[in-house]
Batch of 2 targets.
Target 1
Amino acid sequence: MLKKASVLLGLLTLTGCEEALTLAQVCKETPGFCSDLNKDSHCKDERSDVIIKRYIEYKDPTDENKYQLLKDFESYNQCITVAAKIEHIKLKAKKTSRIDGQLTSIKEMTRLYQDTQNTNHPGLLYYQWSRNNNQNALTKLLAIENDKSVTQSAEMQFFLASYYIKFDDEKTIDLLYKTLELNKKDNVPNSEVYTSLISLFYKHDKFKHAYIFSKVAQMSGIENIDVFEIEQQLITNGKSLDSLDVLAEQTFQQIMAGDFVSPREF
């Protein structure tokens, strides 16, 4: 019990330090967690996240820690794969280290998938299905979709929406609204939450709703949101854009404050 408490205290102390000190500590204690990643400044944030999460998963290999590491390795892999294609005229070694990092991320993601094939963790179940087409994982996830671990997680509500959007528009809208309802203060939701809502509302001729979430998306910094056709539909129907702009501003402020309340019943 004392040893376990000591490990947990060490993890809290580690993650509470300044980033440079934290990375230095991890790389000193477990140099292998740093040496097989890229050595240059590309993907700095993603690399740092991976190093810290590797250490945490090493000290406490729970499904939750494996899940967090898997997500960070996926982000790192996406970044370093692009960086690996960039030629460095003077220092070929930089490209080599990026390729090393890319290969490490693939190897580690494979390990994590293999380690969690029999998991009951909802996030891992979703990843096992969406990345590896594991139908058994999908079956297990749908069986627990009403559990608190799923219903009280904005991330999981969004994941389920990405599944149901293929065949159930109404349930998808419910799940996307719930995603926004569970959004934490100052957290910007995944852009696909807004683009999916806009698309679904437009599909069902709910132009007022499509307009409001188009404006909310723009306020959230999402580019390439085209509201022209929606505006024309509303103007043709005699709707006031000014009043909808006010509603959009209120909706955006509620979401960013963590105070959004879904207008639909669950």
Target 2
Amino acid sequence: MTDATTPAAGPTSTTGAVHPVGLATRAAWAARDWLYAVRWQVQSLGPTTADDYRDGDRPPVVVIPGVYETWHFMRPLMDALHDRGHPVHVLPVLRHNVRPVPASAREVVAYLDEHDLRGVLLVTHSKGGLIGKYAMTSLDPDRRIDRMVAVSTPFGGSSLARLAPVPHLRAFRAADPVLAAMGRELEVNARITSVYGVFDTLIPEGSELAGATNVRLPVGGHFRILGDPRTREAVLAATD
């Protein structure tokens, strides 16, 4: 596993084990995490449109946000990728992403087919990574999807999901049939980079994925990792 555990470290710096995070630090990170989420919900009402990202001459990027998120949550990473020359595509059809993983994955693949996108890099957050892996393993025989970068994705489930009040959140249990079946699909993991912090507000187990490129950053929270410069560096490194 790759660790980047100092403020100056890039995503390929290896520094050894990460020190345990204290309760006070976790509480502070959690508070900042939810403030970040609220801020981006408000910013999603702004004037930026998906068409602003569609030009570029490098391989295409398709972004898939997490549950309850619109594509605007991904804008810090979209900006970095677009500035690097990638055309970046979003899927408004996913709306706030509460549909089952297989149904959403079918929407992703339908979009790739409709626009004849090939050599695609998926850049995803949280549930978006599950949607991306399902598409890669079950719905992409022509391999339009080249690889995926997943940020804070519950590949092994979340123990908090069993407490969720609605079915589309309880689907993140490790025992969920879709999640469990994807966990047995190991071959595709070599084409996945999993980026996650030392503490995740919603995924206590973390996001390490066997056989993938795992990048653990000295960041706390589930949402604010999207805006961290070290996450941007990790995502850009995965495009090279």
